[in-house]
Design brief:
By secondary structure, the protein is mainly β. The protein contains three helices and twelve strands.
């Protein structure tokens, strides 16, 4: 959206601009809608999503036993249903959700070998997702994604919405071409998702997810590389 709003990419015909991104997870095609000089929304077709495993046993201390599904939606997600738990997804519970997400992630890593069927470099689980019924009218569910060192995603998540739709479809709770709304941690907005088709992913049935939402430009940054800086191009420490 920002590229179109700032004029960095020419607007397409009839108010729809299509942009293709090559990402580490695969090719992503996005479209941006504009009218009267304003950007309205963006929608992208994500990489194919699929369910890698279901009903992985998880123990959440203080809350009991749960089952997790392992799903690819552009990232691997361990998805846990909190519908029958007293724990609610809200900013007030962020520390507890973060703590439990990290514990659950380690349990899945210990039980499952994770490997993407076509991308050899993708072989780890980083995201844990908790969900329960939505608080926003019309939304299918509310979720929070816990990732990296325990950070929480405030939004419903693009790859997360893709993974959630694949999970629901595999359980017979969502049909192809059935739009849904997903609610994030803050409860102040939704993404619109839809599964628009099926594809074969190296012998695995996968789904084509689309995600639609809006965003705002919050600021600008400028990065420089000094030729005399020995680490000017960046570095990685593991």
């Amino acid at each position: 959206m920002a590229m179109v709003a700032l004029g960095l990419f020419p607007q397409g015909a009839e108010g729809i601009t299509k942009i293709r991104f090559e990402t580490t997870a695969g090719l992503v095609v996005a479209e941006v809608a504009s009218a009267d000089g304003k950007v309205l929304w963006s929608r992208f077709e994500n990489v194919p999503a699929y369910v890698a495993a279901q009903d992985i046993p998880i123990e959440l201390p203080g809350y009991g036993e749960f089952k997790a599904d392992l799903v690819w939606g552009g990232n691997y997600f361990g998805i846990i249903d909190l519908s029958d738990s007293i724990l609610r997804i809200s900013p007030e519970n962020s520390r507890e959700l973060s703590r439990l997400g990290l514990l659950a992630r380690e349990q899945i890593r210990a039980q499952r070998v994770i490997q993407h069927p076509t991308q050899a470099h993708i072989n780890d689980l980083n995201f844990m997702t908790f969900w329960h019924p939505a608080t926003i009218e019309g939304a299918l569910y509310k979720n929070v994604h816990v990732f990296s060192d325990g950070q929480l995603d405030r939004s419903p998540g693009g790859t997360g919405t893709s993974a959630m739709m694949a999970m629901f479809e595999a359980r017979g709770q969502l049909n192809l071409n059935q739009p849904i709304l997903s609610e994030g941690l803050l409860g102040c907005g939704t993404f619109e998702g839809c599964l628009v088709g099926e594809v074969d992913l190296n012998g695995i049935r996968a789904l084509r997810p689309t995600v639609k939402g809006t965003a705002s430009i919050l600021g600008f940054s400028r990065w420089l590389i000094d030729r005399n800086d020995p680490v000017g191009a960046g570095f990685i420490v593991n």
